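Message: Study each token:
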Amino acid sequence: MSGSHDPRRSMGRLSRSLPPPPKLTWREYLLAETPSSPLQARLRQGFLMAVGFARNRLAVVGLAIVLLLVLTALLAPLLAHQ
């Protein structure tokens, strides 16, 4: 019987007794009250900042204008006639 392998035996007692962790959506994960890691805390801050930024229509319009100007500057050599 040395060739047979029982996957339940390699899992250990603890992992068999615990229920599987609940599946969280990205929004639930990012808005958790108590972050489980420093990375989750930073992602939460960034998400809240992005949501706040997206709610401000004037800021979004300003960002679109700036991105259009940067794109125009990058493509200027292709757009210019010689």
The mean pLDDT is 84. Residues 8-79 form one domain. The CA atoms of residues 33 and 41 lie 10 Å apart.
